[in-house]
Specification:
The structure is a single chain. With 126 residues, this protein is of the alpha/beta class. The protein contains 5 helices and 7 strands, in the order E-H-E-E-E-E-H-H-E-H-E-H. Strands 3-4-2-1-5-6-7 form a 7-stranded mixed β-sheet.
Length: 126
């Protein structure tokens, strides 16, 4: 069960994949290795590590970070959803850069980063 709290940097991975070679999959595994509570939304439901991936836009209470693994075009159906979650920050991983959406997020008081979640975790910048 997901224990959402304001202290644990609860992270939602959008564009999550069941395929082990995908960076979103690796990010979920690394987030869990760092004991960060994690949820994922992808095209297929299933499990990555101990994280159940959903195909639905679940409403979470305390989202610290949304990390995106979708290109700008594929982010469009998630933009209102992400805004409704009111995360502290959104990470645009390589290939997910979207300056127009980043501007909207920033106008709503949400920090944006063009960065790699895997690198951030491995260098203690997460």
């Amino acid at each position: 069960m997901i224990q959402e709290t304001t202290e644990n940097k609860f992270t939602l991975v959008i564009g999550a994949s069941l395929k082990g070679h995908r960076y979103s999959n690796q990010a979920i595994n690394l987030l869990r290795n760092y004991d960060i509570q994690t949820a994922g939304i992808g095209l297929r439901s299933g499990m990555v590590s101990d994280v159940e991936l959903s195909t639905e836009k679940e409403m979470y209470k305390y989202v610290h970070t949304v990390t995106l693994y979708l290109n700008a075009k594929n982010q469009a159906p998630y933009q209102d959803y992400i805004l409704s979650l009111k995360p502290k920050r959104v990470i645009f991983n390589p290939g997910a850069e979207n300056r127009a959406f980043a501007k909207v997020l920033e106008e709503n008081g949400i920090q944006t980063l063009e960065a790699c979640t895997l690198v951030m975790l491995r260098t203690n910048q997460f």
